[in-house]
Amino acid sequence: MRQKMFLYLMGIVTLAVFPVPALWALWYFKDISPWTVIDLPGILHVHTLLGLEWGFFYAAICLLFFQAPHFKEELAQQHALLRSLKLNLFDAFFLSFCAGFGEEILFRCGVQHWLGVALTSVIFVAIHGYFNPKEKRMAVYGFLILPFILSLGYWLSDLGIWFCIAAHFAYDLLLFLFLTRKSA
To answer: Which pTM was predicted?
Structure first.
């Protein structure tokens, strides 16, 4: 129970705190309103649905790779963790949305604004631990997910932040659902 509460706290921090530096920096240095960045009306655009499709599609590709014996050990660790947390459907939706919203505002709208798409994408994947040279299997996964993260960065200007948020949310949600189903 304590681990699950910590996970919820981290979700809330990601949702509410991660966007703050990006929104503040854009407002302070570039005079771009936080409301312009978040673009609430954009959530109703067809691009949001395209983001959901893209995220589910890419997650499905990754899940096919997860079936390879190469990832058996990593999946076993993830299953054990999720079993201990006893995540339900609401948990999966909540945590996926928190990560999708908070991380995309921070990285796509903030970091990417100054460092560009490629460097921001590599940093994003590395921060998640997927480029650890001691974990070669996870590095393979890092290179598998890198094109997805790059696509979000390159499509931000054409499809908007809600495309990116929706794609990230859908990707995380499908992986959560797969791993929780396998953990039950």
So the answer is: 0.94
Closest CA to 165 of 30, 13, 35, 15: 15
> For 37-41, 55-59, 76-80, 176-180, which range has the lowest pLDDT when averaged over its residues?
76-80
31 pLDDT higher than 80: yes
Cα separation of 63 and 78, whole Å?
Answer: 13
Domain around 118: 2-183
**Domains of the chain: total:** 1
CB 86 within 8 A of CB 79: no
Residue 116 φ/ψ region, left for φ over 0, alpha for ψ in the -120 to 50 degree band, beta for the rest: left
CA torsion through residues 30, 33, 34, 39, sign: negative
Which helix (DSSP H) or strand (DSSP E) does residue 97 occupy? helix 89-104
SS3 45: coil
Q: State the DSSP code for 68.
A: S
**Residue 108 and residue 161 in contact, taking contact as beta carbons nearer than 8 Å:** yes
Distance CA 170, CA 51 (A): 8
Query: What's the confidence (pLDDT) of residue 132?
Result: 82
Categorize the per-residue pLDDT at 71 as very low, low, confident or very high, splitting at 50, 70 and 90. Answer: confident
